[in-house]
Specification:
This protein is of the alpha/beta class. It has nine helices and nine strands. This is Pyridoxal phosphate homeostasis protein.
């Protein structure tokens, strides 16, 4: 085993134990929480090593970095988790299995149009799974749909044949108690599921706050630093 693979294996074991412990403390089963490895700025070779170690889901923040990695390491489930501009929709649907950062009707429409185009070209058959990014701090610079507008955006997505609404994603506000933020997200998720019962995914929790997120019902944690370290080299 290479030094880097050994390092990643050790980190993965530690993250897995943290998730398992948080699930036990919350009275939840470990298989209720998916781990997405966030590999932004790290090379495709690290993604390949994580895949060898059993990681199946990978998340990226930037389309231009993710596309080449997804092509180089096939067979994984790829998630777009960063803020997304509408003009990148066509490119993103070429590699992403899921977009977790849908925060406006205009972006949803752009993704639906892009999916329709690749379906017509017989590049992809399935709808695109999407999560609505909910804003927990109303900071426009960080993206996210205001909680008061979630219902309308969810209805818009549900009307699309090209998109499949899976749930909510959020990032805890900077400098705030993550537990309180994730409690708000949990309530928002409960409200969403009243009208959209299949939108049961809650993507919340990162390296520093995954325990609090799992306590409040997260079904998906997005972990980068704790898995890969704090310094990455840009992918070729």
């Amino acid at each position: 085993m290479t030094d880097r693979k050994a390092e990643l294996a050790e980190n993965l074991a530690e993250v897995e134990e943290r998730i398992a412990a948080a699930c036990r403390a919350a009275g939840r089963a470990r298989d209720e929480v998916k781990l997405i490895a966030i590999t932004k700025t790290f090379p495709a070779s690290d993604v390949a090593l994580l895949a060898e170690l059993g990681v199946t889901d990978v998340g990226e923040n930037r389309d231009q970095e993710a596309g080449p990695k997804a092509a180089e390491v096939p067979g994984l489930r790829w998630h777009m988790v960063g803020r997304l501009q509408r003009n990148k929709a066509k490119s993103v649907v070429g590699w992403a299995d899921e977009v977790q950062s849908v925060d406006s009707a205009r972006l949803a429409d752009a993704l639906a149009k892009a999916v329709r185009a690749v379906q017509t070209a017989q590049i992809r058959d399935e709808p695109l799974d999407v999560l609505i990014q909910a804003s927990l701090d109303d900071d426009p610079e960080r993206g996210g749909c205001p909680l008061s507008e979630l219902g309308a955006l969810a209805d818009r997505i549900a009307q699309s044949e090209e998109l499949r609404l899976r749930g909510l994603m959020a990032v805890a506000p900077l400098g705030a108690d993550p537990a309180a933020a994730f409690e708000r997200l949990a309530r928002a998720g409960e409200g969403l599921r009243k009208d959209h019962p299949n939108a049961a995914d809650v993507s919340a929790g990162m390296s520093h706050d995954l325990e609090q997120a799992i306590t409040h019902g997260s079904t998906c944690v997005r972990v980068g630093t704790a898995l890969l370290g704090g310094r990455g080299l840009a992918s070729p």
